[in-house]
Amino acid sequence: MTDSQTEARVPANRVSGIGRLLIAVYGVLALAATGRSFVQIVAAFDDAPLAYSLSALAAVVYIVATVALIKRSALWYRIAWTTISFELLGVLVVGTLSLIDPALFQHKTVWSVFGQGYGFVPLVLPLLGMWWLARHPVSHDESHA
Amino acid sequence: MIDWFTWLQLAIAVPGGLLCVILGMVGRKPTDLTMGATALVELLLIVQLAAAIAAPLAGNNATGSLLEFYTYLVSAILLPVAAGFWALVERSRWSTVILGVTCLSVAVMIYRMNQIWNVQGS
Fold it and tell me: What is the pTM of this model?
């Protein structure tokens, strides 16, 4: 991978390079989580209100994180950190609980078994997102852009 | 779902997606080839939609949840369109990678749709 080299040459004020890919993957995951929770809630919400509410919450957080990564302002930068941290926490807590006590999460969520049903993308993505945010802080002079 | 058509979709979406990811990684901007592969994936999805609507009339009924099936199908149809617009607006290597990631995501969704139609509930 030559990402680190190309990244270094990109002017700091351009949201470019691999960040675009990150946003796209977030968008796909947001769509996947939204689709799943839509089906769960429409078809059988009463079966597992907790798991399905969690699915819906996860979907909303993924959508907000996607938007926050696109927008370049100090406020959205903080929102991006918050939502991505929440995702990491969610996938770690729900992932661990689903292994320790499977009865608690019999109904699948996007975070069950560390996002196994989604190729562990939900586990890897927040880490990549944090890495990207840390490398591309929004300074005050570009926060109006 | 018609079995052979599903496999045709996968036979185009998977190599097409890999091709786009590789070409993007080596620095190619979106071309007729990579845009064409994505457009073909989209076209086959539209045909799949028509086939899915028509199949029950011919006695080919889904074994699993139709709601889940159509949520996947509609989401899958939206993806290549979004990626294609992106590639037109931003002509960079990453747009080519995004075309590839989209085709591969669609392949996974088609596979799941096939499970819902043929395996789930049977």
Answer: 0.80
